[in-house]
Specification:
Blueprint lengths: L7 H4 L1 H11 L4 E2 H8 L3 H13 L3 E8 L2 E8 L1 H19 L23
Antiparallel strand pairs: 1-3, 2-3
């Protein structure tokens, strides 16, 4: 078994959400992603391009109801990278203190104006 790997390509919030949505089905249409993520066409295109260039997403143009639509699907490499990334995030979270036990450190008066926390 290989070690889960934190993946900076997937980690960006929009790309992580794209992978999560794509992992839940065999494909997702560009327009559906745009609606669910509330991103402009150009912003979503940029995120999709980065995942495609990494080999994580495949693109397929299909015609439905006389209109061309872009379908996106995670590749096998993309699905494995997404699963590894999720496992790596879980490992990071589980190896730290439980959220309930986390406390913000006290800031001393001498540090208050210096930006040191």
């Amino acid at each position: 078994m290989h070690e889960p790997r934190f993946d900076p390509v997937i980690h960006a919030p929009a790309r992580l959400r794209i992978c999560a949505i794509a992992a839940a089905s065999s494909y997702v249409e560009f327009g559906e992603l745009q609606t669910r993520l509330d991103l402009s066409k150009s912003a979503l295109s940029k995120q999709v391009a980065q995942l495609t260039e990494a080999g994580y997403l495949s693109e397929e143009y299909v015609t439905r109801a006389g209109r061309s639509r872009l379908r996106l699907a995670l590749t096998e490499d993309g699905l494995q990278a997404y699963r590894d990334h999720v496992r790596a995030l879980k490992d990071i979270i589980e190896s730290s203190a439980p959220v309930e036990e986390l406390e913000r450190p006290e800031v001393s008066r001498s540090d208050a104006g210096s930006g040191v926390e």
